[in-house]
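ok so I'm stuck.
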Amino acid sequence: QTIRSVAGAQPDLQDALAFGELSYDKKMINGVEVQDFEIGETNNHFLVRILFLEGRLFSFFVTAPEKSFQADADNLRRIFFSFEAYDNGKFLLDDQVDSERVKKVIKA
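replied:
not stuck anymore, here's the structure
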């Protein structure tokens, strides 16, 4: 149900949900509830990460035409799975950041 709420403003995502192949995973990362969705087998391929943090919903999307996604799936998934939130409300997107920068973000 959460993914349908997020899809409300995106007609392409609504179509993918209606006709595409959906996979779903729910987990806790860094104390934050995360729901990951992958929708494929349509014109576009979607990776959607929904986070519930401090009573708010955040979503992160990676979208590409299906053929382009398949050609670069490993890199797109690496980018997608690098998006994390921490229970102090900070976000990181880049698994290549140096450890000093990470420490500064977490302490801020």
